[in-house]
């Protein structure tokens, strides 16, 4: 496996005293990666600070999501389990998806089979898509909703492109 440079661009840094090199690479399996090299000490420090701030933000988002999932599981998993107990896989799929969307019926069957049972799969689904799960349960929990809104608010799309 080798990485081949598909494109490399160099230009001035933000402050104009150094240079920045952008590299885009691809391997034999069409996987891609990109990198940026900043050759200016001041701009490098700024980039490092921005990267650390971004990492801290992602950690905060992760903590919020985990807390919301734990709280939702503690408060509502038993209701969720009762909603899906004693029904067929098809009925569970219809209840979960409304009869359309993801997962498709065949995919739903495959996931239930992979998890070993419908109940194990549905237990996994609950925290993975907590907002959808709470809507299905007709639950409005202000504390969990606030955590999920803050989680969404903190999301920043990547604006780095070559």
Written as H for each helix and E for each strand, in order along the chain, the element string is: EEEHHHHHH
Q: How many strand elements?
A: 3
Return Rg in Å: 23 Å
Strand order of the largest sheet: 1-2-3
Structural class comes to alpha+beta
Ranges where pLDDT stays below 50 over 5 or more residues in a row are none
User: How can the largest sheet be summarized?
Assistant: 3 strands, antiparallel
Number of DSSP helical runs: 6
Q: What is the average per-residue confidence, as pLDDT, rounded to a whole number?
A: 93
Strand content: 5-15%
Describe the structure in brief.
The chain has 162 residues and is an alpha+beta fold. The chain has helices at residues 41-84, 89-97, 105-115, 118-128, 130-136, 142-153, and strands spanning 4-12, 19-26, 32-38. It folds into two domains: 1-39, no CATH class; 41-153, no CATH class.
């Amino acid at each position: 496996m080798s990485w081949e440079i598909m494109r490399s661009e160099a230009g001035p840094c933000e402050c104009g005293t150094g240079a920045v090199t952008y590299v885009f690479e691809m391997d034999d399996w069409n996987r891609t990666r990109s990198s940026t090299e900043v050759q200016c000490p001041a701009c490098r420090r700024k980039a490092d600070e921005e990267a650390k701030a971004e990492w801290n933000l992602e950690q905060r988002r992760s903590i919020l999501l985990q807390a919301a999932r734990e709280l939702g599981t503690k408060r509502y998993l038993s209701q969720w389990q009762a909603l899906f107990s004693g029904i067929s896989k098809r009925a569970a799929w219809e209840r979960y998806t409304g009869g359309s969307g993801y997962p498709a019926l065949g995919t739903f069957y495959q996931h239930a089979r992979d998890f070993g049972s419908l109940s194990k799969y549905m237990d996994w689904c609950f925290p993975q898509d907590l907002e959808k799960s709470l809507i299905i349960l007709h639950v409005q929990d202000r504390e969990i909703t606030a955590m999920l809104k803050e989680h969404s608010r903190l999301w920043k799309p990547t604006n780095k492109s070559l």
